[in-house]
Amino acid sequence: MSEKVFVIDTNVLLHDPESIFKFPRHEVAIPVTVLEELDKLKRTPGELGKSARSALRIIESCKSKGQGDLHKGVTLDNEATIRILMEIKSDYNKSFALSVNDNKIIMAAYYLFEQGKRVVFVSKDFAARVKAEAIGLEAEDYENLKFSYQGIARGIRTLELEKTQIDHFYKDGELFVPDIEARPNEYFILSCPEHSSAVAHYNGTKKQLEPLVKIPPLWGIKPRNIEQKCAIDALLRDDVKLVTLLGPAGTGKTLLALACALRKVFDEGSYKKILVSRPIVPLGRDIGYLPGTKEEKLTSWMQPIFDNLELLAASIGDEPVDTLQWILESKKIEMEAVTYIRGRSLPKMFIIIDEAQNLTPHELKTFISRAGVDTKVVLAGDPTQIDNPYLDQNSNGLTYTVGKFSHHPIFTHMFLEKTERSELAGLAIELM
């Protein structure tokens, strides 16, 4: 087989509308069925419709970017050739019913395969890839916009030092370690056999280790382990503009973020408002399917946030119902679906995006790019628990963000491993 052709499935274009440009020096074929599916989805509310519209606009723009036409093939600057595939293998067998769009797309790829070309079917749908492989096609996942979840640093590690170095750290409030290899805002447990351990934050600008910030009253809660202590330090630092908190359920990700947000907004006035958002999953479902006003619809999706606010309101010792009501009526906390953030500019806000693992890299890029001057963004989630059928541990937006920002001085990341919700919750995660 001489020529290599990548046949792109619809879900790839929805995941990354610019994916057709990611195959330089190769031919990219888009079955006409993919165009039909994108056309049907372009009026869908939210990010799904936006991605469909973007993909269609990008495909159309290829006519002006390259030489040729979309039916015969347009050659782009990266030497890729883009074309719309009209032909289809229509007489394969009865098991591939052409009433199913997935089968039409696979049969379009098979048509090229019969022409003697080396065809690679690219899809985010595992079942579609299996069907393609079953009939002899080469199939693969879309590998762009991915970072290895297993390769993500935990945000904190142990650093073995001499006793004199730790003594200097306690005495001077800083420590320069010349041979250390560290990312900006990484955390370290400083350890030596003769000394009790210390916890330090790495200042990437000054290239030195520094103590954690002194933890102020945080609406009645305190850190229960070292990872939570470091997470609070990151959440309270105004120079750190983007924080990611990863870990299983019950590790305190959302609770810590909310507690620090309340401290920063209500007690210190460092930010004018808290904005809390969660993706409406599964992908493509909009809150318009629920009855009532937008606020009433959001209540169902935001109930985990209300639960955490109730816990924080009860922790400070006053009447929890009155405290919660005061928080909600203050106009300093806003809850919004991710769907409705696009197009806004959000200055001087403390933004929390919960369950961020259910967003694509493109969706998170759209959200983070809304951050205005003096805004802090916190992403919380568990990449091992994903509801979006086309995302996994490596391709979700949360993992991708950690990988992309890991060496930037305005970013820090913490992996919370220990479940502190309850003994029962911890056992459930461990045993089940």
Describe the structure.
It is a single chain. The chain is an alpha/beta fold. The protein is 35% helix and 20% strand. It has helices at residues 10-15, 32-41, 47-65, 101-114, 126-134, 163-172, 226-236, 253-267, 294-301, 303-315, 320-329, 361-368, 397-405, 423-431, and strands at residues 4-8, 27-31, 67-69, 73-75, 81-85, 118-122, 138-140, 156-160, 187-192, 195-203, 208-211, 242-246, 273-278, 333-337, 349-353, 376-381, 411-415. The chain has a 7-stranded mixed beta sheet with strand order 3-4-5-2-1-6-7, sandwiched between helices. Strands 14-13-15-16-12-17 form a 6-stranded parallel beta sheet, with helices on both faces. The protein has a 4-stranded mixed beta sheet with strand order 8-9-10-11. The two termini are 48 Å apart.
Could you give a quick summary of the protein structure above?
The protein has 432 residues and is an alpha/beta fold. 35% of the residues lie in helices and 20% in strands. α7 (226-236) runs parallel beside α8 and α8 (253-267) packs across α10.
Quickly list its features:
432 residues, alpha/beta, Rossmann fold, 2 domains, seven-stranded mixed sheet, six-stranded parallel sheet, 14 helices, 17 strands
